[in-house]
Amino acid sequence: MEYDYLKISGNVAIVTGGGRGIGRGIAIALARFGVKVIICDIQDDWGEKVAEEIRKASGIAQYCHCDVADTAQDRALVETTVQTFGTIDILVNNAGIGSVPIQFQDITDEEWDRMLQVDLTAPFYLCREVIPYMRAKKHGKIINISSGSGIIGDEFCAHYATAKAGVIGFTQSIAKEVAKDQINVNAIAVPTTQTPILKETDYDTFVEDELKDIPWGRIGTPEDIANMVLYLSSDASEYVTGQVLAPNGGRHTPL
Amino acid sequence: MKESVQKSMFDYFRLEGQTAIVTGSGNGIGRATAIMLADLGTNVMVCDIDEDSAVKVTEEITQRGGAAIANKCDVTSLEEIRDTIAKTVKAFGNVDILVNNAAGFGGGKTFDKMTYDEWNRLIRINLTGSYMFTNEVLPYMVKKQHGKICMVSSGAALGYDFSDPHYAASKAGMIGLAKELSQELAKYRININVLGTGLTDTRMAHLPGRSWEDETKGLLWYRVGTPQDQASAIVFLVSEAAEYITGQVLCPNGGAWL
């Protein structure tokens, strides 16, 4: 008995920041279900490697360089996607930057602006570019990667929490605007996740501290997030829009 | 894709060999959930207060090539809950998934039309029924260190749906119960999540004295929800794809509260 629960094979997706970590996990998961994936990143070698990995496993993927904070590059990315695969169905705004712990009064103007530009403005740029295509075909799935920090705040990362909270407000606002066009827009409040970027921090102390607040007893994995993205990219979630979902092992989340 | 790679990924959304109990599955969202779970390879106990409707759904599942059995179950009766679980375990060997879907509705009563009897009736079905059923399956799930529970609550619990005081309170109670239990049950690898349904085209949503046209007017989404919309969200929450999700409320509501 075969039952295609997700029904996403043949769709076309852009995954920003797909070169490693959560973005890589999302790109691979989508490709495994037959989605044609454009992986964009600023690190060409990482992005190329993921696209190659997918193609070696008989999936369909192509790498495209894109600094999402640059609106001209975002436009080019979407144009390339449509030229390559003929359409765009799924946009996963995953690319983002974090910060070392810093007291808010020590954040410089440049650091603040850069954080908001990459984590909040870039998703806005990209949504603006893909919406006309999705509107024309009356089908589209936008998944914005927010963070638990955007809901409960983040001590010593105020600029990050602010940008991620902004992503939620943006998600809910445009969900309203495009509902009639059959475009779903949802956000995932990503928890602390096993990624290379995390490994660059004071890993053991940090994770040990985090685990005190996570009933499930482990931190998240890129697969946990990718599975949520698969559901939100699929027909299975057609009536779900403007939502914020938090796959976070039962950590306190006022949602 | 290489078969081994594809298999491991597909397994997240496959439910082959799992056993599920879906309460109130003779109609509406429960029926759609039972059918979808069976289509994905789950053994399903279809139970309902209306036994005939449950039998009909099992016949439908059997015809589609799935595995299901039916039982009469009034969720206010501890005896019938125990009987339903016992029959499930006897037929399929275990219980992996529980969908607390059975519910009564208040029928559009405002506070001034409420009685204490009516309050007690609905709280017993929606909240106490879900609690008792959960409590009775937990020993099986704890023993197995694996279980997925989904509470079918409602947007009424979150205040964006004009319903009835007792209906809203019973559905909000299910959320509080699920969130608390999620903390207790994580160490046993048992996930408990909530579905906050939006307007869905079911028997319950068609209120006497209100036109469906009025009910569905002014929706944000381009169409009203179907039982399949809710079922597919439940299926996600009880699948291995949702292993890291617990104590959450997922609301397929077409953006109704935005």
Helix and strand arrangement:
The complex is a heterodimer of chains A (255) and B (258).
Chain A: E1 12-16, H1 21-32, E2 36-41, H2 44-56, E3 61-65, H3 71-85, E4 90-93, H4 109-137, E5 140-147, H5 149-152, H6 158-178, E6 183-190, H7 196-199, H8 203-211, H9 222-233, E7 244-245
Parallel strand pairs in A: 1-2, 1-4, 2-3, 4-5, 5-6, 6-7
Helix pairs in contact in A: 1-2, 1-9, 3-4, 4-6
Chain B: H1 3-10, E1 19-23, H2 28-39, E2 43-48, H3 51-63, E3 67-72, H4 78-92, E4 97-100, H5 116-144, E5 147-154, H6 165-185, E6 190-197, H7 212-215, H8 227-238, E7 249-250
Describe this structure in words.
The complex is a heterodimer of chains A (255) and B (258). Chain A is an alpha/beta fold and 255 residues long. Chain A has a single domain, classed as Rossmann fold, CATH 3.40.50.720. Helices cover 47% and strands 15% of the residues of chain A. Chain A is built from 9 helices and 7 strands. Chain A has helices at 21-32, 44-56, 71-85, 109-137, 149-152, 158-178, 196-199, 203-211, 222-233, and strands at residues 12-16, 36-41, 61-65, 90-93, 140-147, 183-190, 244-245. In chain A, strands 3-2-1-4-5-6-7 form a 7-stranded parallel sheet, sandwiched between helices. In chain A, strand 1, helix 1 (21-32) and strand 2 form a beta-alpha-beta unit. Chain A is globular and about 45 Å long. The model of chain A has no long low-confidence stretch (mean pLDDT 95). The longest helix of chain B is centred in the middle third of the chain and has 29 residues, at 116-144. Chain B is globular and about 45 Å long. In chain B, strand 2 (43-48), helix 3 and strand 3 form a beta-alpha-beta unit. Chain B contains 8 helices and 7 strands; from the N terminus they run αβαβαβαβαβαβααβ. The chains are: A alpha/beta (255), B alpha/beta (258). At the A-B interface, helix 1, helix 6 and helix 9 of A face helix 1, helix 8 and strand 7 of B.
